[in-house]
Amino acid sequence: MTDSERVKLIEKTYELSTNALAKALNLKSAQTLYDIHKGKHGISKELAEKIHAKYLNINPTWLLTGVGDMFNAKPSNELDKSEKKQGDTVTMPREVFDMISRLTETILSQQRVIESDIKEMAKAFKKTKNGNCDAGIANAV
Question: What is the number of domains present in the chain?
Answer without folding.
Answer: 2
